[in-house]
Amino acid sequence: MIPRHLVIGVAVLLIAALGLSVYAWRMEKAAGSRTASAPDTRPLAPPVAGPTEVVTLFVADDNDGTLRAESAQIPMPSGRQQRAEELLRALLSIYLDKSSTHPLGAGSEVRSVYLVDPGLAVIDVNAALADTHRSGILVEELTVASFIHTISANTPGILKAKILVDGQERPTLAGHADLSSFYDVSAVNQLAVQLQSSP
Amino acid sequence: MPSTRKRPAHTRQVFFTAQVLLWAILLSEVLLSLAAAPEKHLSVFSVAANYSLPLVQRDRRDYVGLLEVLEPLGKVTARTEGSRWRLRYNNNVEGDFQAGKLRARIQGRDADLGGKFLIENGRGLVPLTSLSSLLPRFLGGPVSLREETGRLFIGSVATHFTAALSGEKLVFNFTAPVNPSIANGAGMLRMTFSRDPIVAPASPNLTFGSKTFPSANYSEGNGAAIVTVNTSTAVMASFSNNSRTITISPAPAASQIAAANPEPPAGGPQTSSPPPPSSSSSPTAAPPPAVSPTPAPSPRRYFAVIDASHGGDDHGETLSTTLLEKDITVVLARGLRQELESRGISTLVLRDSDANLSLDQRATYANADHAAIYIALHAASSGRGVRVYTALLPYADDDRGPFRSWDTAQHAWLPLSQSTAAAVEAELQKRQVPVRSLAAPLRPLNNVSGAAIAIEMAPQSSDVSQLTAPDYQQLIVSAVAAAIAANRDQLGAAP
User: Fold this and answer.
1) For A38-42, B105-109, B208-212, B266-270, which range has the lowest pLDDT when averaged over its residues?
2) Mean pLDDT score of chain B, rounded to an integer?
3) Cβ atoms within 10 A of the Cβ of B136, count?
């Protein structure tokens, strides 16, 4: 004969376990739906304070395969490296806009720009940018030329540039544009001039 | 007493140590002999491609991967289901193999393998000897297997040759361009044809009745054909007639060399020609090691090398749900080859099947063949018409002495590449095709040591299916071929 108090104790524990399971299941479901539905509205980088400046961005246009110089007024920090990062983030915000003439995939980011003396710029983009980039010689070289020429035009003294994806070297951006070598900035600037003229 | 008990134990220890040492020595000997053994190869010669595959030894037989044999010849897929291995070639021939079995079924009919079929890491291995019966079933045509020498001929691809004296020289004439490696040794010159389907003359031993060139002989081994010319003096070889003729002549005397080359340029590039060897039979006649005054012209096997970009795992751009860039480039490459060859330009297509080929391999093949022009073909859905690209050279250190930087190997040829691109652009404009000429950071253009361009074909309207239209493809490849043919002299004159 099992004592009565033991039966009651086990029953209470079973009910408590069942209740907790239901609660945990509902919590998990609620958390899942929140993750799925809520967009990530966190800022990509801390907001830049300080005075704004007029800068020139070189924006790609897939319609005619050109680069177009566009003036933009953006807040610019004082550090060279931070300025280069802000330039590319301003460029990226244009490409991520729905009406962009050179759309990049959702979630594309410029993680960092490192300016290393003498004259080296390392542009580190995230994997989403490369993974969602459209494939093709022209469409890829427009992205590369747009990034490098924008930095070079606003940051004197850059001689060579390297593009990394998530901090790692990749053979190409999306199957064509070479990312394994250092770009010769003067050659890219000449290409940018070619690309600014309509075909 | 204790000492008498210890002694046998000590002896046993010594004996055991000696045994371990002996086994270790034996094992290292076996390993060393295995390491020293040259890897065996099978050379395959076909109209589509010439290639070499490694052979593996199993059950004292030579085995080869069947998928690897067929892959460069057509579209091949294979899958393993337990102990079964199924192979599909060009979507119309099916083979069913089972691990450990001596027979396979091809198109529902039995085929004898002459040994067990093996599956290793998903690879289907067949005995080398079975290729002569298996391949005709898959390819629908005859093959000729030389099992002892590791050479396989698919179709009528053999290159024949004749050798005859012409004054002081020995002239070899081949029925197709050849590219042997040439080694000079004491009293002989050896030409090794690893990538050419050379076959034996009527007799493997040739005699010429000449004091300088008494005889020559032909042999085959490990996938290569070897022609050894016996000589009584130092000789040199030169190529002519678009690499169809090899002329072997006595090397110039030392005094002539000194007159032609009073002093080699200090720090400049060294000649690639090896110094003539000293002859054991007539040491006084042999010139001292020196650079050749006029190095033999580079053996140019093909004038143009066409590269169907992407392939295998690399699909390139997905142009539509059913259309991949890698498939369009192969079709374009075949069309361009036909157009060039109809204009008398010898052409090699680097990728004529759905094979993986790295960018470095593509450049290496183009450079090894000393092609006058390398043309990479691409297709794109964005933009309109055709884009013609030349290399956007990366930032790189200068060349080091005689060595060129791999990243900027194109540097010296960039002006020629640009003028060729301009000629192609002009020809396309003539035919009312929208065209644009640009630089691009596109490998392997920058690694090619010769004129190099890339053609990217986009549709003329927003309809991507135009890329598959034979008329549109023909319009473009004929324009490219016409431009190259018109610039043939300029391209051919480049080093």
Assistant:
1) B266-270
2) 80
3) 15
pLDDT tens string B3-61: 444 456 666 666 666 676 667 666 655 554 544 456 788 899 987 778 888 888 888 88
- Find, among B137, B126, B12, B146, the residue nearest to B67 by Cα: B126
Provide the token pair at B200. 């034996």
In chain B, residues with a C-beta closer than 8 Å to the C-beta of A119 are none
Whether B126 contacts B58, CB under 8 Å: no
Tokens of A177: 């544009």
Domains in chain B, start-ordered, CATH in brackets?
A: 41-146 (3.30.457.10), 161-259 (2.60.40.3470), 304-397+404-493 (3.40.630.40)
**Whether the complex's predicted ipTM surpasses the cut of 0.85:** no
A148 touches chain B (CB under 8 A): no
What is the tally of helices (H) and strands (E) in chain B? 9, 30
B320 reaches A (C-beta below 8 A): no
Contacts of B436 in chain A (CB under 8 A): 65, 199
Dist CA B347 CA B484 (whole Å): 12
Contacts of B344 (CB under 8 A, 6+ apart): B485
B205-207/B215-221 β-pairing = antiparallel
d(C-alpha B337, C-alpha B304), whole Å: 9
Alpha helices in B371-449 (DSSP H): 414-430
**B392 touches A at CB < 8 Å:** yes
Rounded CA Rg of chain A: 25
Measure the N-to-C terminal CA separation of chain A; round to a whole number of Å.
96
Residue of B392, B411, B443, B447 to mutate when probing chain A, most A C-beta within 10 A: B392
Please state, in angstroms and rounded to a whole number, the distance separating the CA atoms of residues B167 and B58.
52
Per DSSP, the residues of B327-355 read HHHHHHHHHHHHHHHHTT--EEES--SS-
A124 close to B (CB below 8 A): no
d(CA B248, CA B239): 9
**Cα dist from B181 to A44, B133, B225, B275, B403, whole Å:** 59, 32, 11, 15, 20
Measured CA to CA, the distance from residue B413 to residue B237 in angstroms comes to: 27
Spatial CB neighbours of A186, under 8 Å, sequence gap ≥ 6: A159
Interface size between A and B, measured as CB pairs under 8 A: 96
Report the C-alpha gap between A98 and B100 in whole angstroms. Answer: 60
Chain A residues in contact with B453 (beta carbon < 8 A): none
Strands B373-379 and B386-391: unpaired
Angstrom distance (rounded) from CA B377 to CA B317? 13
Which of A139, A144, A172 is closest, CB to CB, to B382?
Answer: A139
- Of A100, A82, A81, the C-alpha closest to A91 is A100
pTM: 0.55
Q: State which H helix or E strand residue B361 sits in.
A: helix B359-368
Whether the CB of B393 is below 8 Å from some CB of chain A: the reply is: yes
pLDDT tens, B472-495? 999 999 999 999 999 888 888 766
